[in-house]
């Protein structure tokens, strides 16, 4: 109660913002990414150094063989891929401005790599095309995350793996309730500021994906960060 009294003005501001603007459309989020792209790495590098980058290192070091990344952005996971394991890399993203930044990093990679513009909801690859399919803050940036996850599994080979780093609502119900009650997660302005959602139910998406077997899930922070190792069931 004291918390709400202290932050009453901020809560009222967030509520007013949501009532006026709602959630951004995919087109509006793409506009935000285009605007952010030229300075994206510079702006998020310090923020992600002790959080997302640490988690990326844990998950994506396991990528091997022919690798597909969905929602590659500016290529922030490149440095966490093990060049001794990766044979070929393809990254896709819907935003051309982000891809332009990612392309600048390709010459430094020691494995065959390219990035192409494509919609993660309808990947332009045949079934079972890749040994590893990865996504770093991917599903939270998708208009229909359940469809994107199904597509990732479709293009993954039967003995392959799907590796994810995702942000979403907390794993434990009590923490989830507390964050929602305090107005921390979800934050109505987050999607406008960062162009990705903070309130995906990651575990729910994994359970709902037909044919997906979750081999391991680890959470970090207050349970809002999910490190996922999955495969075909």
3D structure, described in words:
The chain has 233 residues and is α/β, with parallel strands linked by helices. Helices cover 38% and strands 24% of the residues. The protein is built from ten helices and seven strands. It has helices at residues 2-6, 8-21, 26-36, 40-49, 52-60, 96-103, 145-154, 173-181, 190-194, 202-208; strands at residues 65-70, 86-93, 112-117, 130-136, 156-167, 212-220, 225-232. A seven-stranded mixed beta sheet has the order 3-2-1-4-5-7-6, with helices on both faces. The longest helix is centred in the first third of the chain and has 14 residues, at 8-21. The radius of gyration is 18 Å and the shape is globular. The relative contact order is 0.15.
Shape: globular
Strand order of the largest sheet: 3-2-1-4-5-7-6
* Classification by helices and strands: alpha/beta
In percent, how much strand structure appears in the residues? 15-25%
Helix-strand string: HHHHHEEHEEHEHHHEE
Q: Catalogue the unreliable spans.
A: 2-6
Beta-strand segment tally: 7
Largest sheet: 7 strands, mixed
Alpha carbon gap, first and last residue: 46 Å
Radius of gyration: 18 Å
* Residues in helices, as a percent range: 25-40%
Q: How much is the average pLDDT?
A: 90
* SS element count, helices: 10
């Amino acid at each position: 109660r004291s918390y709400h009294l202290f932050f009453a003005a901020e809560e009222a501001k967030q509520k007013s913002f949501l009532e006026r603007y709602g959630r951004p459309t995919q087109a509006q989020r793409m506009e935000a990414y285009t605007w952010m792209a030229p300075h994206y790495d510079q702006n998020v590098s310090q923020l992600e150094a002790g959080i997302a980058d640490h988690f990326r290192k844990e998950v994506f070091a396991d990528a091997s063989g022919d690798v597909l990344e969905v929602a590659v952005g500016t290529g922030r996971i490149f440095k966490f891929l093990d060049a001794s394991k990766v044979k070929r890399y393809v990254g896709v993203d819907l935003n051309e401005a982000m891809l332009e930044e990612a392309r600048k990093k390709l010459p430094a990679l020691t494995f065959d790599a390219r990035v192409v513009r494509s919609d993660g909801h309808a990947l332009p690859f045949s079934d079972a095309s890749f040994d590893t399919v990865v996504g770093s803050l991917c599903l939270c940036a998708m208009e229909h995350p359940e469809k994107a996850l199904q597509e990732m599994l479709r293009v993954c080979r039967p003995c392959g793996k799907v590796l994810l780093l995702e942000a979403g609502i907390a794993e434990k119900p009590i923490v989830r309730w507390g964050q929602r009650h305090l107005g921390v997660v979800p934050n109505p302005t987050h999607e406008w500021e960062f162009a990705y959602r903070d309130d995906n139910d990651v575990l729910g998406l994994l359970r709902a994906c037909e044919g997906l077997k979750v081999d391991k899930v680890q959470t970090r922070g207050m349970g809002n960060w999910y490190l996922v190792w999955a495969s075909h069931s």
